């Protein structure tokens, strides 16, 4: 695989869903941008004589060989992005999967078991709030009855968004038959950090995913007039929220962990009114589960202490939790041995992390010189991506014969 060949396929996908100005992507599940990305994938798959199907949860599968066959080897990732995200997080794994099929054929590999490239839906949870929704539904890790009631920030139901794309939301739910047909899953992903850059390696293998979770904080105060209410008479939820953000930063540093408040909703969100209510979402991640628990509990306590001072109220609810994921199965060991690549943990969640509890799973990382992700500065060179395709092909060749 040459850098030029990688760039040729990449350039046919990368303009889709770019948000203009900042060069970021707005590929949110079941929006027009997402549907165009999905059409792109189907076309590229059909061009390769792969059999395309969409499963009950909206995940797309492109099969080389019998979809009903057992012992399937699957690769792929996702096409959705966070708002104004980078272009590689997700799509790199999908493009690499399609090119790996090309390279397997050029090497004369004839799989003795079905091979598929998969696109999981709503991996970022950027529209409906639950990360890895497509793979969680497939594995039974998320309740379909709750899923159909998920709404985006405009109040659109997931059920309606999927219905608009021609899917029947009543079919959402576990897909054990499909899962049991999978013998291996390999997700290639851009590294969301600079470990490979620091050791000058183009490709790495994942050892683990940090435990992490999303927690909704609701702050309730007293709406009032911004001009006539004395400071001493206020119960401003934004003040409690602000102190919670500062506490999250301080406590995370003390725990050697990561805590982020990246999304805030305020009501009534007016310039000349003290807010009555504010919601904020904490993204918390740590190297082990007990540290994660302590981190979140301490932040919650600090928020409650501040609320007592401000005369406001705070409530916290965990929205999605991911336990520690160890990539220690045969496929991961083979990847590390076969590729001779460095092995590294990540703080980022992936569909591979959801599948790892059900299927022998490995993740490959491609070097990201900026280390930035979930922002337009995310980057990977075509040369490194081409190496990633070759290493993915090596691994798939070993697994599918
Ligand atoms: O948020 C994550 O960890 C991943 O990038 N979806
Ligand atoms: Mn991501
Ligand atoms: Mn991703
Ligand atoms: Mn007025």
From TrEMBL:
Alphabetized Pfam families for the sequence: M20_dimer, Peptidase_M20
Domain Peptidase M20 dimerisation, chain residue ranges per copy: 215-307
Cofactor: Zn(2+)
Entry-linked SUPFAM superfamilies: Bacterial exopeptidase dimerisation domain, Zn-dependent exopeptidases
Keyword Zinc: yes
Keyword vocabulary terms for this entry: Hydrolase, Metal-binding, Zinc
One annotated GO molecular function: metal ion binding
Binding site for Zn(2+) 2: 89, 124, 374
Entry note: cofactor: Binds 2 Zn(2+) ions per subunit.
Annotated residues for binding of allantoate: 214, 272, 285
Binding site for Zn(2+) 1: 78, 89, 189
Top-level taxon: Bacteria
Family as reported in the entry's similarity comment: Belongs to the peptidase M20 family.
Protein name (Swiss-Prot/TrEMBL): Zn-dependent hydrolase
Species assigned in the record: Dactylosporangium sucinum
